[in-house]
Amino acid sequence: MADEAKDIVLRGNQFSFKYRTTGIFINAKGNIAINVDPVTQQAGLPGGKVKYGETSREAIEREFIEVMGIHVRAIRLIAVIENLFNIDDQQYNEIMFTWLIERVDQEQVFAKDSWEQCVTWRKISELPDIKPKILQTVLCDLPTIPVHLINRD
Fold first, then answer.
1. Interior/surface letters 51-82, b for 16+ CB within 10 angstroms, e for the rest
2. What is the average pLDDT value for the chain, to the nearest integer?
């Protein structure tokens, strides 16, 4: 997704840093919301970049309005992930806060970013392609206290 003026990102010719937040949103059937990138077909948790002056909790609640058009509440922090990977000779470092979230009402609002993100529902046991891969270690058995994870792809 394109950077916006207040996003916490640093970009260079050969590197990129992002401060991100993602949400674990499980529906009544026990399926999890997954964001599938329309270009790369990579699967990940819905979320986005944290903005200056915003906490990761505030950011995930904003992101679900922008992506899915729904109001959510961050229940508890599940993981802090250091995600390191390379794409086309570009080195990426992300710090990602992953929250367990719940829907707070049935209101549907305009999702301004729905055009660039496709959210689908999958069984938690059917996520072999999720990025970062380290998420697989927590999604099947959510920890009761936050965990620190390091992912290198």
1. beebebbebbbbbbbbbbebebebeebbbebe
2. 92
